[in-house]
Design goal:
There is one protein chain. The chain folds into two domains: about 1-90, no CATH class; about 90-330, MetI-like fold. It is about 75% helix and about 0% strand. It has helices at about 1-35, 40-45, 50-75, 95-100, 105-135, 140-155, 155-165, 175-180, 195-210, 210-225, 225-235, 240-250, 255-270, 275-280, 290-300, 305-330; strands spanning about 80, 90. A hairpin with a 7-residue loop joins strand 1 and strand 2 (about 90). Helix 5 runs antiparallel to helix 13 (about 255-270) and helix 5 packs across helix 15 (about 290-300). The longest helix has about 35 residues, at about 1-35. The protein is flat and about 100 Å long. Residues about 5-10 have low confidence and may be disordered.
Length: about 325
Amino acid sequence: MENKHQQNTNAIPASSKKGKLKQKLEELSVKIDRWSRKKPFRRKMYLNRSLYLMMLPYLVLFILFTVTPVLMSFSLGFTYYNILETPKWVGWQNYLDLFLNDPIFIIAVKNTLIIALITGPIGYILSFIVAWLINELPRYLRSIITLVFYAPSIAGAAALTIWALIFSSDIYGYANAYLIDWGIITEPITWLQDADYILPIVIIVQLWMSLGVNFLAMIAGLKGINREYYEAGAVDGIRNRWQELWYITLPNMKSILLFSAVIQIAGSLNVGAVTTTLAGFPSVQYAGHTIVNHLQDYGHIRFDMGYASAIATILFLSAILLNKLIRKIIRKVGT
């Protein structure tokens, strides 16, 4: 009996502690609820707190491995840092040297702009046109041709090796072999050792490779449009395929168009592996030298991380500005 009485007396304080803890948690919940009602953003976060908790692991990894390196690169751009020594603050000196004392960087900017201005818009429009045409094909043909056009993205470095073989400088290169056979030239052209040919070849290869992911995204966007919209459009007065494209297809694909534009911008500004594989590093007279090649030169070879960070910051800001410009253009689609 005494043991039972002692157990009951011990149980009372434990239950009272749990009750007090529960009461405090309820009070805290009420306070948070009141605090969240003061602003719409707080309220949205409070009502969707379970979803934000599920996103937390990804957000932590994203901040650690994406946001933090970007911020570190931005800050290192104002320093001299060679990995072995502690960073030394130099202010805007790296940026001044880039634009005033680095002629190779100016060549890299010029080459990157030429590649981006040609392969960006043309590749983007070409991806949509090809996807639009293939979407009209029968189902069995559509799958085969989609795989053919997506193959460059799957092949990767192997595709670049094929292009290097096509433009090989000896008589065994396909381009030279056919041109000699047709009587157009009498001796092999050193395609990838001649500064006049390097940049055009890089543009052709980059344009060919840019069809991959963009093309697949466009196909997905076209397949996701409800066919009833076209029927309703015909009732409302749409009479031809161009009106159908402008007023129905493109407005219903705005999210896909924006995604493809971002991918295309990133691909156009990130050209580096193509030039290195085809023309070597550095290319003859820096004819194929891009901003990414310049970044790799100072970051991976010279280990001047402050200077390389300044180059990366310029590339990053250029991508953001182009992205905003593309957003403004896409908003006008269908209006």
